[in-house]
Specification:
The complex is a heterodimer of chains A (112) and B (111). Chain A has 112 residues and is mostly beta strands. In chain A, 0% of the residues lie in helices and 50% in strands. The chains are: A mainly beta (112), B mainly beta (111). At the A-B interface, strand 5, strand 6 and strand 11 of A face strand 4, strand 5, strand 9 and strand 10 of B.
């Protein structure tokens, strides 16, 4: 069945470091891909999305490119801030919509 | 603020009891989804309603049920509660084929 696999956390970085969180997926057809972020004690917020191959989603300095050939959607940010500390979830949904399938989440901690 | 509201924010109850969680979707969204977030299972899809009708079921226990009302708000009913039902319950809403927006969640603690 369809699935999403994320790199394990927690990830600890110093402020202004480069961030990569790996995400790969298995799917039949061509899903839409998402990154959601969950700050401590809060719900999930949509961070960015991509709906077809080679699309790049971007928001708040974060980027991810939909790579069909490697079935990946890695999250990157050039310079992280303490305020980026959160749990990041990669997710997919089939082209017809419906349920989100989430990865296990990656906890990011940014130290000053 | 996503525009999706959930009540209550916290719920503490005893084993064997029944609770109702409420969700109001964003204005204009006909789809409501329920998810459970727990430490051991991660984020799991429970059920999807579209304009009052059940569209899909995921890993939802028989003790759990849901419905979507004519005004599009949705309720998730959890009965015969067990310790293992303690989790965060999220609802999300969307228009067909578009991204889902999540509410702040209801934290259920079963003692």
């Amino acid at each position: 069945g369809n699935s999403v696999t994320q790199m394990e956390g927690p990830v600890t970085l110093s402020e202004e470091a480069f961030l990569t969180i790996n995400c790969t997926y298995t799917a039949t057809g061509y899903p839409s891909l998402f990154w959601y972020v969950q700050y401590p004690g809060e719900g999930l917020q949509l961070l960015l999305k991509a709906t077809k191959a080679d699309d790049k989603g971007s928001n708040k300095g974060f980027e991810a490119t939909y790579r069909k050939e490697t079935t990946s959607f890695h999250l990157e940010k050039g310079s992280v801030q303490v305020s980026d500390s959160a749990v990041y979830f990669c997710a997919q949904v089939g082209y017809q919509g419906g349920k989100l399938i989430f990865g296990q989440g990656t906890e990011l901690s940014v130290k000053p | 603020d996503s525009g999706v509201t959930q009540t209550p924010k916290h719920l503490i109850t005893a084993t064997g009891q029944r609770v109702t969680l409420r969700c109001s979707p964003r204005s204009g969204d006909l789809s409501v989804y329920w998810y459970q977030q727990s430490l051991d299972q991660g984020l799991q899809f429970l059920i999807h309603y579209y304009n009052g009708e059940e569209r899909a079921k995921g890993n939802i226990l028989e003790r759990f049920s849901a419905q979507q009302f004519p005004d599009l708000h949705s309720e998730l009913n959890l009965s015969s509660l067990e310790l293992g039902d303690s989790a965060l319950y999220f609802c999300a809403s969307s228009v067909p084929g578009r991204e889902q927006y999540f509410g702040p969640g209801t934290r259920l603690t079963v003692t």
